[in-house]
Amino acid sequence: MSFEEVKEIIVDTISCDEDKITLDANLKEDLGIDSLDAMELSMALEEHYSLSIEEEALAKFVTVKDIVDYIDENR
Predict the structure, then answer these.
(1) Sign of CA pseudo-dihedral 69, 47, 9, 29
(2) Residue 6: what are its φ and ψ, rounded to 5°?
(3) Phi, psi (rounded to 5 degrees) for 26
(4) Whole-structure pTM value
(5) How big is the CA angle at 71 (ends 66 and 73), to the nearest 5 degrees?
(6) What is the tens place of the pLDDT at every residue in 26-59?
(7) Which of 16, 26, 46, 69 could link 30 by a cystine bridge, Cβ 3.0 to 4.6 Å?
(8) Residue 71 in contact with residue 48, Cβ under 8 Å?
(9) CA 37, CA 41: separation in Å to the nearest integer?
(10) For 17-28, b where at least 16 C-beta lie within 10 A, e where not — what string?
(11) What is the per-residue pLDDT for 1?
């Protein structure tokens, strides 16, 4: 599972509290990620995993688990 890597990327990109990042954490409500943060996070994930995240997929990311599942399915 990519959770630890994704968690590290979120901390580095968004500078949020590492303790708040769980699989069930809501990106907007729990982590305070806005649309600009989401784009920065998307670019960081794409670079780290050498993949492209479609806008439709990005729009469906609600929790950290959604990101981890997408990474696991597409790398």
Answers:
(1) negative
(2) -65, -40
(3) -80, 130
(4) 0.93
(5) 95
(6) 999 999 999 999 999 999 999 999 999 999 999 9
(7) 26
(8) no
(9) 6
(10) eeeebeeebebe
(11) 58
